[in-house]
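Help needed: design a sequence for this.
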């Protein structure tokens, strides 16, 4: 009887140990995957911003001010649309609303915009 109880206890302990180790490894794997996915998105956004600002800088240097203005307004309009989507979602709004009020109140009220907003027509934004 004692031998059987001892074996059951050993099996339970080993199963619990395997479960704990598996949970630790799984958690670490999930954290690594989330971090990699976050970085992938972050760097794609950074690349998009870089190419936009690069194009604006090149256009200004070459004297193409209207094209530089167009690129700036297209980017600002697209980013404004994204921020408005966030503001219209309660969960996202709670996260960013205070920062928007402090740094970009025009996101909450387009009448306050200080640039020419470019409307999306047929899923496309383009300068006129």
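Sure. Designed sequence:
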């Amino acid at each position: 009887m004692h031998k059987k109880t001892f074996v059951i206890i050993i099996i339970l302990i080993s199963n619990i140990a395997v479960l704990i180790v598996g949970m630790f490894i799984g958690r670490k794997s999930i954290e690594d995957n989330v971090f990699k996915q976050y970085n992938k998105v972050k760097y794609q956004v950074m690349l998009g911003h870089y190419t936009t600002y690069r194009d604006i800088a090149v256009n200004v240097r070459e004297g193409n001010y209207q094209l530089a203005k167009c690129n700036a307004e297209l980017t600002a309009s697209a980013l404004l649309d994204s921020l408005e989507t966030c503001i219209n979602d309660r969960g996202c709004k709670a996260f960013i609303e205070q920062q928007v009020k402090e740094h970009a109140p025009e996101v909450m009220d387009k009448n306050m915009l200080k640039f020419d907003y470019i409307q999306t027509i047929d899923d496309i934004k383009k300068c006129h």
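The mean pLDDT is 87.
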